Amino acid sequence: MAVVKWKAQAYRLFNEYVELARMDYGQKTAERWLYEADEIISRLQRFPESYTPEPLLKERKRKYRSCRLMGRRFRLVYYYNPNTNIVRIVDLWDTRMNPETLMKRVRI
Length: 108
Description:
Layout: E1 3-6, H1 8-25, H2 27-46, E2 64-69, E3 74-81, E4 86-94, H3 99-105
Parallel strand pairs: 1-4
Antiparallel strand pairs: 2-3, 3-4
């Protein structure tokens, strides 16, 4: 099984969005988002390359992948290193934002 690690900024964003969901939409919505994220992380541990490559980052050295979550409003962006068996979650991108934002935030 692969090890899933969060980049600090991505983890902070995730927690902020969940807390905003709790305040704006209620506890059930926040719990649903947390459950959905747990399911995605479980899948990444077992099948780290199962999600599709992220088209906005196809020119990068690393092969970034993404999956939709939280009502398809966000994309969890990650890459997998088969040599170390580590999945690194690098960003949580709000798909309503300008795509340039994602390209600037993911540096490598």
